[in-house]
Queue: 2 jobs
Job 1
Amino acid sequence: MSFDDWILALHVLSAFALVGAMVLFWILIVAMRNLDSVGDTIAFGRVMRVGTGVVMAGVVGTILFGIWLAISLDAYEVWDGWILAAIVLWAIGTGTGMRSDVEYRKAVTRAEELRSSGQEGQPGELRALNRTSAGLTMHTISSLAIVLILLDMIWKPGA
Amino acid sequence: MLAAIRPDEWNWALLLHVGGAMILVGGMLTAASALTLARGHAGVLRLGYWSLLAVSLPGYILMRIGAEWIADKELLLEEGVEEPDWLGVGYLVADTGALLLLIALVVGGIGVYRLRGGKGTSLLMATMVISLVLLAAYVVTIWAMSAKPG
């Protein structure tokens, strides 16, 4: 196995981490839609933290090892159209994904505040935060960008 | 490099294989995380089990169909063709993993049913252990399938 083979393996593993975490967040978005209690929101929020850690590893790994490969392999250049498209999509996916995380984290943060002050909050308050439409929109855009990257990586248009 | 040696007509099979595998891993990641971090919370335990059943299992089926499709296109299943090591790893983990996934689903299903009576957490712990083992095996397999040692 060459060094580039290792980098490719790490690039692909990072991609799996990224998409795996994206799937995790979709499952949580659906599962948390009706949560309105402090305990439930905090309990589900623990799983969300795992997703955040994994998605960060995926985001950093895909771009780092991907650009490394583009520089290292003779067949590709960083300025190839399909690679530039992937970088742009990666930036869109990362930006919207981070924004989505901020929106969904509000519910967990609020639940933790309520717990620390010994309150349960107003009925519907946490449910509204768990159903954030801004978060859902951002996560949908982020997911579409990642799916487009996957298609781009497989078809490699212009390569 | 890969694009130069892979005909375009293989791409749909590859997409099905890789896409299915990513869904499988995502479901397994959710299941393993939820079952590990549930701390007895029934809702999170159910989330872990349903992630396995409703996400990982369909992902596995898509991945396996895609695997056969692409292996057929690459003529890797032809008689007289020596099976590469990475393909052997893939088949070993896929077949053994299917059995383990099935056991995890049956055991976890009984556990989720017993949650109604306040029991079943120990069975879901067994499902958690299997999920963690499968997740680790999938990481090794992804490495083998992408780096293709041997």
Job 2
Amino acid sequence: MAAGCTFFGGYPITPSSGIAEQMVRSLPGAGGVFVQMEDEIASLAAVIGASLAGSKAMTATSGPGFSLMQEHIGYAAMAEVPCVIVNVMRGGPSTGLPTSPSQGDVMQARWGTHGDHPAIVLAPSSVGEVYDLTVKAFNLAERFRTPVIVLYDEIVGHTRESVTLSPSVEVVDRVAPDAGLQNFLPKAAQANGVPPMSGFGDGYRFHVTGLAHDERGFPTEDAEVAGDLITRLHTKVEDHADEITDVETFMMDDADIAIFAIGIVGRSAREAVGQARAAGAKVGLIRPVTLWPFPSAEVAAVAEQVDTLIVAEMNLGQMIGEVERAAGQRTHIVSHLRADGEPITPSALLDVIESSSRSEEGS
Amino acid sequence: MNDVKKYLREWAMPHVLCPGCAHGIVLRSFLEAVDQLQLAQDQVAMVAGIGCSSRLAGYADFCTLHGTHGRAPAFATGLKLARPELDVVVVTGDGDGLAIGGNHLIHAARRNIDITVLLLNNSIYGMTGGQVAPTSPEGTVASTTPSGNTEPPFDPCQLLLGAGASYVARVLAATPTEMTKVMADAILHPGFAFIEVVADCPEYFGRYNKAGGGAEMLTQLAGRDTGVAVQLADKRFVNHIPSSETAPGLQTGVLRRETRPVFSGVRGGGDHGA
């Protein structure tokens, strides 16, 4: 709401329902609207409708609901409708482990919907960071006219902890077209690759579609126009990846072992790094705060520096492929996985650090 | 008849519809209704799903949203809640609205969100090449029922009456003047208004079932009109055409018009109040 959100459309699902329950209390008094829809497909459709009407809009869900939302994540990407989707990950697949944490949706968040599409995914590890990154998600959605996903897990979602909120936050609004244009082209991009956006009822009449379309927003099967559109949807994000990317590093200056982890695993890893340092090991942490676009350059730099890179994730190995691609042959990569609904603990990571240290000494 | 060209995107023509398809007649009736009501053109939002009927939105010069298959009522719900001053009209079809989108349609009706839904029922999937639809009568030959459909069809109006729609009407694409009157009536209705527009598909339904071309199909449709529902009797325009003996009758006109609280989401100043 600090970012200007005035619409929430959602459907109950553990462990994300608390967000809807808070929004229904907070939005009406602040001029906003809440609606509980009939399913997650409808929830994101309503959010997109509200965004096209000029509102900043969001929804929140978990794995099974996130699967249902994929249809409209693609629609929002294609039609360039800003919106924010929170996915509080739980164990999967299917109904899985509804009240247990997981990081099983990191690839779904990137590639879940069909077709080539851009993705911006933010991965907070604490309650305070959920606040900061949700504001950032709205700002990025408005700036790039694209859906932005805030991805965390059941532990972060259910944790209660003290936070200090910034007294004021930077708020970015979508760019409106100039008034009084004779020939408003709703999909004509500015130099940054993003078209100015008019709302329904603002005065311009225009068409919005999920079909490939031209600058008028009208369907086309022209290969050149369709190709240019898909390319622009990517480049408007990828060309600004350095402004979107955010990576936290901890004790990396002299590290020869690093842990790569996101979200709650990053928090366990931070604790493990502290304990390992106390025991004399030169260990550091790299935690992508922006998961997608993937921080390949930052991972490559870490890989260049360390002898061992431990990739810890609460799934059966979804991010390691990305890490390997970024790291190349620069370092030895160790995978540490857990997908049973239990978190990766600091002590488990300490064991991995210890065995990695031993193998380094042995090599 | 009024000149409705100002409501058309002529630059977007030629359109995708087949010869003999009545969807153009339906669009014209809708534009006539908008003109009669003198709705502000900038404040009309037309929300469509996927299918032949849904393509109509692209040719209408309003704010038009061509969404995803079956989800138009859900898009329209968010749009209307975020900007209540818009006149929001959903245009959908029998496959879009009653198969993949059936859930969204009945929930929009239950909530009584203030939108108008035009469901163009041609009893077949046209856009994808003539597959059987949830309103295809038993025995219908379609590309996915080559030996004849064995599933019983929905009656769209009965479904929406059951779902609690506060306004339900049926019109025939064969009677455009009455269609315009009912559409104008529905747009003015405060709350969820549903109109089943019984239309033809000569290209697939007609060809597969030897039902003739567009003109023959519309004439046959008109012959199935069993007369007008009581509530619209005073607004009846066309003369009654005797019911055909070979096809079941279709009651036309307004089947329900009732006033109940209009849904506006959970917002300041009360949860429901219009």
